[in-house]
Please model this.
Amino acid sequence: MSDFSIRTISADEHAAYIAAQPAASFLQTPGWAAVKSEWKAESLGWFDPANPAELVGVGLVLYRQMPKVKRYLAYLPEGPVIDWDAIDLGSYLRPLAAHLQERGAFGIRMGPPIATRRWTAKTIKDAIAGGQQPKLGDVRPDVIEPSGATVTEQLRKLGWKAPRVAEGFAAGQPQYVFQVPLAGRSQDDLLKGMNQLWRRNIKKADKAGVEVTQGGPEDIKAFHGLYVETAQRDHFTPRPLPYFEKMYAAMANQPSGCCDFRIYNAHHEGDLVASTIWVRVGGHSWYSYGASSTAKRDVRGSNAVQWRMMTDALAAGASVYDLRGITDTLDPNDPHVGLIQFKTGTGGEAVEYVGEWDLPLNKALYTAFDLYMRRR
Model:
């Protein structure tokens, strides 16, 4: 199989290709380049040499400059959007490496959207209760995805390397996520799949009169106020308001309608008690950001807004509702275990991806940048 050719494409070409796919990460849409405006960005397209007009893959590349040197780390978050089942992934990745090296990249990082293992909610719940396996990766999975091993083997043969956990320049996207499968299910199926606490809280919110509505750009400021309150309560550093204003403007107005981007608000007696950001690209939907008030926690606005996003994803034809990252800890004494317990209540599954892989193009500069990022 001969290698594909690769060149820069327009945002319109990029978005149209994404819109025609069954699913792709929202981090690979052209709008994400505008969200990450502090990085230089490029939309790339792969073309079949036998038919030069045929676009067969796309990728959003973000370039992070090395301090004091005009050389870059080229990053493709949760991408590129190519045929990962190809017999020879090198036909895509060799021209990618050559192109990015010409652009001044000293290394490439990418995140293939390929799952390796899956664990059901019951398996996770039993493992936490047993207390004998402190890490999710130590638990026997319910499903092993053969494509994960195939892609991993090909990447290693092509010279790519998997970053070591918690080492090197900070990993961009989580390797473990929690998802609720939607394909072939009804609302009743989803509700029955949840644990008793989730079902009770959804009913409690409804009985208390919590109203969930879809918002617009005018709601960004209110969302951010609640998000800052959540950050103070949960001890994390919040992103500034302009980041979310930029995100809404960039993601909600992309060419070809390749991305469905929404804000949801849960109100109780006029008070905003929860607010979230929801994204969908093809059959994949995500809970991207969430915030809730410290007051009125008892009306369960967070459960109500999650249920609304999940059912809207189902109505939109999505096959997956993705609650994004989880840590791999199952230690009952670890404070992070509460997050996986909350998400497990939805009745979904934990999914491990192959993770983010690196290809050093200039080993000396790659090592120097790695050390710089560790010191930061």
Q: What stands out?
A: The chain has a mean pLDDT of 94.
